[in-house]
Design a protein that fits this description.
It holds the Pfam family DUF2147. By secondary structure, the protein is mainly beta. The protein contains 3 helices and 8 strands. It has a single domain, classed as Lipocalin. The chain is globular, with a radius of gyration of 13 Å. The N terminus is likely disordered.
Length: 129
């Protein structure tokens, strides 16, 4: 099995958090509902315990490697205006990876990397709510 097939949620979203909640209340916050650029998934980003989680709320029918309810736990911190960096854990696949996300208005780009940054993928998102 190729590495890309082993971590679809990682590539679906790429976000768990040690970030203060007031800092996330600003306009460039990743919190809310997001639709993936390819139209195949929607996620809700919200606090979950001490972290932040991206939970699949809708997956396009016929998508084999993802399902509604899959969760990505993120530990990120603010790195600049609308930019966050850190790590994420995909409990469905027992995988950790580095994560960077950039929020600009109603658009977000996520970038997840595994294998020490050798394998990376960026995904675009549009804010739904």
């Amino acid at each position: 099995m190729t590495m890309m097939k082993r971590f679809p949620l990682l590539m679906t979203f790429t976000i768990g958090l040690g970030l203060a909640m007031p800092a996330l209340a600003e306009a460039e916050s990743p919190m809310g509902e997001w639709a993936r650029g390819d139209g195949a998934a929607k996620v809700r980003i919200a606090p979950c315990g001490e972290n932040i989680c991206a939970t699949n709320t809708w997956i396009k029918p016929g998508t084999k490697s993802e399902k509604t309810g899959d969760v990505l736990v993120m530990t990120i911190s603010k790195d600049g205006q609308g930019t966050y960096k850190g790590s994420a854990f995909d409990p469905q696949r027992n995988m950790n990876f580095k994560l960077k996300l950039t929020v600009e208005g109603k658009s977000m780009t996520t970038r997840g990397c595994v294998l020490g940054g050798i394998v990376c993928k960026s995904v675009s998102w549009s804010k739904v709510k």
